[in-house]
Write a structure and sequence with these properties.
This protein is an alpha/beta fold and 310 residues long. It contains ten helices and twelve strands. The chain is globular, with a radius of gyration of 19 Å.
Length: 310
């Protein structure tokens, strides 16, 4: 059992991680702005309201913590294209401040949610492994890779145990509708509302989509487990095109989408697929929810939300 702090613990991925950590018997503290109602369900969780940009508040929340999971984020791949400087100011700088505080406060381990798509850039037919040279083409991916460099720095200089998780494209329950991230819930919510859905070019862009609770189960294992590497890919390891996702979404919704097609913006990779064998070999396979099943579960939650508010 460890004392674990989850930064962004009321967010999409963070809230599922909080539930998994608590179920495993760890003592969990959540640091979040709490800009929406609490979505994690675990009882006896300590909640601290604050902003990641407030260095003093973050440092105070770390007092007595053994492990910190950094799952908070103020930018998205789309927003970073509009404002690259914000990626540096709101993501890289705040994370370096957090790492400094963690080292000073005696935190033993920091686990950082990086990105498994944007860090590698466009990949060929073979999935990208942790040995693949990163080649990000967006400010979002460049920022995540810069943070990974600082993780190495703090590990080498201060002895802080750091782990970067290159997570693919998570989707599922609790994913907010008001952020420009998350193809699957955006598609499903637009289908539910009868609104047009945006598809870039012919929908051939390929991604690795992984069900968020599967990710949370994987990440929770790092609270107290020994590990052999400082970087892990986390995903399903399965390629799916946007066109495939749209067809599955239409099937579960029982309706055809009104498709609006646009040219793919610069900074978007055409193909993103990761090799997840390193994590699965060391910690066991936990990404078990197939895409069709995960989309159906996400649709059911969206339908319940619409029923509750309608």
């Amino acid at each position: 059992m460890v004392d674990a702090l989850v930064l962004g613990g009321n967010g999409f991925l963070g809230s599922s991680l909080v539930d998994e950590l608590a179920t495993a018997g760890h003592r969990v503290t959540v640091f979040d702005r709490f800009s929406r109602d609490t979505v994690y369900t675990a009882p006896d969780v300590r909640a601290v309201q604050g902003d990641l940009g407030d260095a003093d508040a973050v440092a105070d929340a770390m007092a007595g913590q053994q492990v910190v999971f950094h799952f908070g984020g103020a930018t998205t791949p789309v927003s970073s294209l509009r404002d690259p400087l914000a990626e540096v100011q709101r993501e890289v700088a705040t994370t370096v401040s957090m790492l400094t505080a963690a080292a000073e406060r005696g935190v033993e381990r920091v686990v950082f949610a990086s990105t498994g798509g944007a860090v590698y850039g466009d990949v060929g037919p073979e999935p990208a492994s942790e040995q693949t040279a990163p080649a990000p083409i967006s400010p979002y991916g460049i920022g995540k890779l810069a943070v990974e460099g600082f993780l190495r720095y703090f590990r080498d200089v201060t002895g802080l145990d750091t782990i970067a998780l290159r997570i693919s494209n998570p989707y599922g329950p609790r994913q907010r509708a008001d952020r420009e991230q998350g193809l699957i819930p955006i598609l499903l919510r637009r289908l539910a509302a009868g609104e047009p859905v945006l598809v870039y070019d012919d929908g051939s862009m390929v991604r690795d989509y992984v069900f968020a609770p599967d990710v949370a189960r994987q990440v929770a294992r790092l609270a107290d487990a020994d590990h052999a590497h400082a970087v892990y890919n986390v995903g399903s390891g399965e390629p799916h095109s946007v066109a495939e996702v749209l067809a599955l979404a239409e099937a579960v919704a029982g309706r055809r989408a009104q498709v609006e097609r646009r040219q793919t913006p610069r900074g978007f990779v055409a193909r993103s697929l990761i090799d997840v064998s390193r994590f699965d070999t060391e910690f066991g396979r936990t990404a078990t929810v197939e895409l069709a099943d995960g989309i159906e579960r996400t649709w059911r939650e969206i339908s319940r939300e619409r029923g509750a508010t309608g």
